[in-house]
Amino acid sequence: MELKKLKGLLGIQEGDTSQDIALQFLMEDVDETIRNYCNLKAVPAGLASTSYRMAMDLYRYERPGDGDAPVQVSSISEGDTSTSFTSAADALSGGILKDYQGQLNRYRKLGW
């Protein structure tokens, strides 16, 4: 993965280096996750787009480098006004692999 391309996909200006460390970590994490899940030494070219989507999801839901975890509204009631919040990371419950197992399984090799 390329940092420049990931920044472009996330809408981060090329000259903005404030997120570079977090983005580099995400790219390494996604690479490691794919290699470990598929039992491969390198991420195949066929999973390039999938790896970018995984990195984008991790960036949006986990917000590395940000001390405050983002929250989402989980429910709203109008009678006597009630609002419930949940962590945005809950969208990744079951891990980042949950949404991408279909694509990754095509490249998965049996490990002994």
TrEMBL record:
InterPro entries: Viral_HT_Connector_Assembly. Gene3D superfamilies: 1.10.246.150. This is Phage gp6-like head-tail connector protein.
